[in-house]
Write the structure tokens for this entry.
Amino acid sequence: MSPHTTSSPQLLDVSSPELTHWLEIPPHRSSVRVARRSMNARLTDWLLPGELCADAVLLVSELVTNAVRHTLSARILCGIGLVGDGRVRLEVHDHDYTGGDLPRCDPGPDDEGGRGLLLVEQLADAWGVDRSRLTGGNAVWATLTA
């Protein structure tokens, strides 16, 4: 699976709480629900359009699920931020130090999983993977516009 872009615009500013929201979660399946709820609450507080909020929460859910299922992370950092007029950036940072590419997945019609990055590719304006300056692992990011 190839990201739309290969290099990230500036990562979210971790020191700007009015424009960003960060959550540190353990690598458990229940953390996906926690991330969805937390990110939805912040997006709603920012009074963003409903469709943008729904798409952003779906992508956060998919990216956190991937970090939980496919890395040996001790903790996962999940961030969202307002990066321009009607633009949202999502980031999920893990502790995967292998530096490998994201695996290509071609799910069959009866497969229950394997479509997360396909959704990211379809819904995001741009997305990619960089080395995380926060964890040393991967930082998978996506941007959305209202």
